[in-house]
Write a structure and sequence with these properties.
Elements (H helix, E strand, L loop, with lengths): L4 E9 L7 E7 L19 E4 L9 H5 L23 H5 L5 E4 L1 E2 L2 H8 L3 H7 L2 E5 L7 H12 L4 E6 L5 H7 L6 E5 L5 H8 L4 H15 L5 E6 L8 H13 L6 E3 L5 H7 L18 H12 L6
Parallel strand pairs: 2-6, 6-7, 7-8, 8-9, 9-10
Antiparallel strand pairs: 1-2, 1-5, 3-4
Length: 304
């Protein structure tokens, strides 16, 4: 069984499914979206993070680094080309500005971390959401975790980018799910390759399969589209997605408004943004823009 690293377990979450939930964030994703709102979740391995906002500039970390990878003269403070990820700097950092991103956890450890909130799940119609990154990248582990939670009477929701091996997914993960949130970002295959790093062919095929099963009393699946200015929120792209969904009998979808916080996250892991820092990319999504996008879906008979 391939064990993923866990980024975070976020309790009292209200935006990742019905009711009060705990969200388990997996590290590792098969996509590489240029706008990724959780860039620290892309790589499967552990990373060193640096938050300049809370650094007190004591330079304790500079003194303890055996590779001399830390310097105020480095663009992102850490020279990751020589850093060996020993994390001695993070262990000695008094402010927490340096941190290890991603830690190993067993299924039992994750269950123990969330089971204490079961009364909140039960009273609110909530549960546990498996997110990332991409939980379906680790089918056996995710299936074992979902089973362990499900057998304890906990509602399980999976958030997925849709790029997974369907055979392994349906064998290991699907039987234990109560709901699926499924991201469909771009319809044009070339645009998908350009902005997400891979073709969308399997993503669309997997969605068709899930939607068919859902219509046959299977697990409910909710398609979601992140609204990225000038990329996914164009009228042509939204019409393409809405038409695709309508052709499969989908009557409800969700839109995820853009926010600019991902740029700060990029800086923490030493990545320069690969999208232009223009006005639209620097602002939170406006209400009128959401309404414009909503109207495209509603014109195809899909409620948002």
């Amino acid at each position: 069984m391939k064990h993923p690293l866990i980024l975070e377990i976020k309790g009292n979450a209200l935006d990742d499914g019905p009711g009060i939930r705990s969200v388990v964030f997996f590290k590792g994703c098969p996509l590489s979206c240029t706008w990724c709102h959780n860039p620290e979740s892309k790589r499967t391995g552990a990373e060193i993070g640096f938050d300049a906002k809370i650094c007190v500039e004591c330079d304790t970390c500079v003194d303890v680094c055996p590779e001399k990878a830390l310097s105020r003269n480095n663009p992102f403070f850490i020279d990751r080309s020589v850093c060996t990820l020993c994390f001695q700097c993070a262990d000695t950092c008094p402010s927490g500005a340096l941190s290890c991103i991603g830690k190993p956890m067993t299924v039992d450890e994750i269950v123990a971390a969330v089971i204490c909130d079961k009364p909140f799940y039960d009273n609110s119609g909530g549960g546990v959401t498996l997110s990332g990154g991409e939980p379906a990248l680790f089918t056996e582990f995710t299936g074992a975790l979902a089973k362990a939670l499900k057998t304890r009477g906990i509602h399980i929701l999976l958030e997925t980018c849709g790029l997974f091996d369907p055979g392994r997914f349906f064998d290991w993960v699907y039987p234990w799910l109560d709901m699926i949130y499924y991201d469909i970002k771009l319809m044009d295959p070339n645009a998908h390759i350009r902005h997400c790093g891979v073709s969308n062919e399997r993503i669309l095929h997997n969605f068709k399969t899930l939607q068919k099963r859902s219509q046959e009393s299977g697990v409910p699946v909710l398609p979601r589209t992140p609204l990225i200015p000038g990329i996914t929120d164009t009228t042509d792209n939204l019409k393409g997605i809405a038409g695709f969904l309508a052709s499969l009998g989908v009557t409800q979808a969700s839109l995820l408004p853009y926010h600019p916080l991902w740029r700060e996250k990029n800086l923490k892991i030493g990545i320069a943004a690969n999208l232009p820092h223009n006005e639209s990319m620097a602002q939170w999504y406006e209400k009128q823009d959401i309404e414009r996008c909503r109207s495209v879906f509603e014109a195809s008979g899909i409620c948002i």
